[in-house]
Amino acid sequence: MLVILSSNYKEYVKFPTLQIVFQRVFGRSILTIDGEEWAQRRRILNPAFASDKLKAMGAQMLVCIQEMLDDWERKVLETNAATGELELDMIKEFTKVSADVLSRTCFGSNFKEGKAVFEDQEGLIEAIYQDAVRYAIIPLYRFLPTARNRLCWKLQRRIHETLKTIIENRMHAVQKCQADSYGDDLLGRILAANGSSLGDGVVLTTQDIIDECRTFFFAGHETTASLLAWATMLMASNPEWQDRAREEVLEMRNDGYINAHSKLKILEMILLETLRLYPPITQLISRTRSPEYGTTDEASTEERKLNIPAGVRINVLCGVMHRDKKMWGDDVDEFQPERFANGISRACKGMHGFMAFGYGPHSCIGQTFAMLEAKLVLASMLQRFRFRLPETYQHAPRLYGTLRPQHGMPLLITPIHFSETDKWVTM
Ligand code: HEM
Fold it and tell me: Which Gene Ontology terms of cellular component type are present (predicted)?
């Protein structure tokens, strides 16, 4: 097993098609820049994701989550009040809620405009992706006024104008003392850190900030939805773990509510085990910048120096490493959240067995955000619904950028307060 022990800087953009999508959608963002520029950018963005600040966002996340659950309850009443059971495609539900959460936590009071931007961005990615091969092989194709290119230009203009207006309004409000801060959302925190000593005084332009907001949506949207969908599938097929998680949630409720401070250890273990078995990102791609890059490490039993020349592309297959018996034991293919009872480092042998959020300096900046969101979604869901898999469920994990269920993730949900006597029971 090859383990990369250090990676100072990585180059992300390797495949021509991916390069076109990334550059056209995000411009020069943390995902597409490299070297010292990347390092400065990361220092400016890091504080926005500090865990104490994120906890304050829990309330905004819960607003979106409760809306989704209220909607489910309404649908059960309208369509299936007799049985109390309803089938929903969880991948669709979680894709929507994670988009709502990102719009709210990124843009706070500008939530509606933010949501419209993200919808445009999805349209843009789709349009660019459809033509990616042509862009890659026909020089200057992207400048031709084809119908799809015109659509891309229109969406790009609209995204740019909306985000520029939001950002400039916030900056003007502070400059003119109409507001005492840039806001308590991710955008506000980036504006506050911009130009400070964190990034060596580097000042991000409005365009840079626009590119970063768009990147967060791309990086945090499908990944979190995919984690949530697999987690509900695993809890539905392992009802004892669903019950344990629900018991913990009910025990940890404060005044009847779960919040970002609730300690939910069982749920955390379930999420880590889900990420191990079904990591939304299954491989990491990097390129060596200098020789003497790493060592080989056979599950910590043997270590040999490995000289890799500069410029070599390395694909780290985290999905495969997560299923390596030498690292995880003979029960590697089983759902055993207990293995994470004493944290990630004790769950496997070897330094880099768990790679769901990447590793090294480029590891996921949004991992605490994603884990908080996932915990709040599942805890809220467990409080209000029981769920099981329908007999028609077909297990088919497939890579569509992220690891998603090919035939959707149908789940039969029943409100907890629906009693066996076909009545809604009030709390
Ligand atoms: C379950 C959810 C998530 C998973 C599994 C995940 C996974 C990853 C992985 C594996 C990487 C490293 C990629 C590489 O090294 O090539 C990464 C990077 C990144 N992620 Fe996440 N991510 C998740 C959620 C989020 C969220 C919610 C955000 C933002 C709101 C986010 C923003 C980013 C950014 C900006 C990077 C690039 C970091 C850099 O290059 O410095 N991610 N993510």
Answer: membrane
Report the pLDDT value the prediction gives residue 186, as an integer from 0 to 100: 92
CATH of the domain at 411: 1.10.630.10
Is residue 215 in contact with ligand 1, taking CB distance under 6 Å? yes
User: Does 362 sit in the ligand 1 pocket, CB within 6 Å?
Assistant: yes
Q: Full-prediction pTM beyond 0.80?
A: yes
**CB of 43 shorter than 6 A to ligand 1:** no
> Measuring from atom 12 of ligand 1, which residue has the nearest CA?
358
Confidence check on the interface: ipTM exceeds 0.90, yes or no: yes
Nearest CA to ligand 1 atom 24: 220
Check if 403 has its Cβ closer than 6 Å to any atom of ligand 1.
Answer: no
Tell me the per-residue pLDDT of 380-400, one tens digit each, with 9 for 90 and over.
999 999 999 999 999 999 988
Report the pLDDT value the prediction gives residue 20, as an integer from 0 to 100.
Answer: 64
Taking each continuous run of H as one helix and of E as one strand, the counts in the chain are: 15, 10
- Distance from Cα 221 to the centre of ligand 1, integer Å: 10
Residue 157: closest CA among 128, 120, 132, 205: 120
> Does a structural domain hold residue 424?
no
According to the model, what pLDDT value does residue 17 have? 58
Domain hosting 284: range is 2-415
**Please, are residues 269 and 337 in contact by the beta-carbon 8 Å criterion?**
yes
- CA–centroid distance, 366 to ligand 1, in Å, is 6
Count of domains in the chain? 1
The per-residue pLDDT for 86 is 94
Nearest-atom index, ligand 1, CA of 12: 16
Residue numbers in the chain where pLDDT is lower than 70: 1-21, 136, 199, 290-306, 418-427
- For residue 117, the number of C-alpha atoms closer than 13 Å in the C-beta half-sphere is 29
Answer yes or no: is 253 within a domain: yes
Kindly state whether residue 425 falls inside one of the protein's structural domains.
Answer: no
Sequence-ordered list of residues with C-beta below 8 angstroms from that of 229, at least 6 positions apart, any chain? 90, 91, 94, 404, 405, 409
Question: In the prediction, which pLDDT does 76 show?
Answer: 93
| Ligand 1 mutation pick, 213, 357, 372, max ligand atoms within 8 A of CB | 357
Distance separating alpha carbons of residues 258 and 383, to the nearest angstrom = 9
Match 């495969």 to its residue by tokens. Answer: 320
pLDDT at residue 33 in the model: 84
Is residue 427 in a domain? no
